[in-house]
Each structure stands twice: as C-alpha cells, then as structure tokens.
Design brief:
This is Replication initiator A N-terminal domain-containing protein. 34% of the residues lie in helices and 6% in strands. It has five helices and three strands; from the N terminus they run ααβααββα. Helix 2 packs across helix 4.
C-alpha cells in the first residue's frame, strides 16, 4: 500500500457516512428541532437501510400494511449516542412532534417498532416556522364521520340467544 492511498479496509472502516437530509439544516421549518433530535433521526434512518435489505431478503421488518419499520431499542440508541434513556425518549417525542417518526408499542418486553417518516419537501412549508405551518398530513387523514347505528342488533349476550 502506497503512502496516502486508501485501502479497501480503510474505506470500509472510515469512508462510509451517515446521511442527514439537507432540509433539516438551514430551513425555517426545522430550525427549532434540536441538533440531537436530528442526529437521532439520522441514526434511525440509517438503520432503515438495514431493515430494507432484510425485508428484501426475508420479508422481515415489514408490517401488515406493507410499511417498513426499524427495531432500535432505547438501550442501543443510548449506547450509540452517549445519551441517557430519558434524553432518548425526549428526543423521540420531539421527532414525533415534527412528524419525522412514528413509534408503535409491541408489548411483552419487545422493543417498539420505529417508523422513520419522510421530511417535508414543499418549499413553501419549509420557509414557514413549524408552529405557523399548516399540518401537511391533514389532507391524508380521514375525518371523523358520523355513522348511524343500526337498529338491528348484531350481537347478543349468551343469555339472550335463543336455543
């Protein structure tokens, strides 16, 4: 190996980088999102690449709706960031507030599923502060519709059933 040249081993160890979406830096919309939350988003988003590869090979890390999720327990996030558990929880709540993350409990001492979400790309929204901008996801949400309850009972208790 010649001095100054990069070997394959060096490239594999030092030239692979995390990616942070540029809109998280320098836009008014994400201006108040703290740097630690952006860092956490970057790590979770990077873990998504691993989930995508595994999903292609085995079908794991895809939920019943076809959405890809990440398993990144708080203790691993703590270890990778150097932040305490309470700070990890606080940062995840901040990402949820900014619609950058969904978290789904699995229960039974299983780690939560993390669903990293897309960043805002609308140039008009990015010029607004998060507080002043309309919720960009409202157009996709289904409103509460009033349904009329049926007059015909659909189920009865065991006592009321005819034999």
């Amino acid at each position: 190996m010649a001095y100054g040249r990069k070997s394959l081993l060096q490239i594999q160890a030092t030239e692979i980088h995390y990616q942070l979406p540029k809109v998280l830096v320098g836009t008014t919309y994400y201006q108040k999102l703290c740097a630690e939350a952006k860092f956490l988003y970057m790590l979770i988003n990077d873990r998504l690449k691993l989930s995508l590869q595994t999903a292609k090979d085995t079908g794991n890390f895809v939920d019943k709706h076809g959405d890809v999720y990440v398993i990144y327990p708080n203790n691993e996030l703590s270890q990778d960031t150097g932040y305490g558990k309470d700070k990890i929880i606080k940062l995840k709540k901040e990402l949820i507030k900014y619609n950058l993350l969904d978290e789904e409990r699995q229960g039974m001492k299983q780690p939560n599923r993390l669903y990293p979400k897309n960043v805002i790309s609308d140039p008009n929204l990015l010029k607004m502060s998060f507080e002043d901008a309309p919720n960009p996801w409202e157009i996709y949400e289904v409103g509460n519709t009033e349904f009329k309850n049926s007059e015909i009972p659909t189920s009865r208790s065991r006592k009321c059933r005819t034999k």
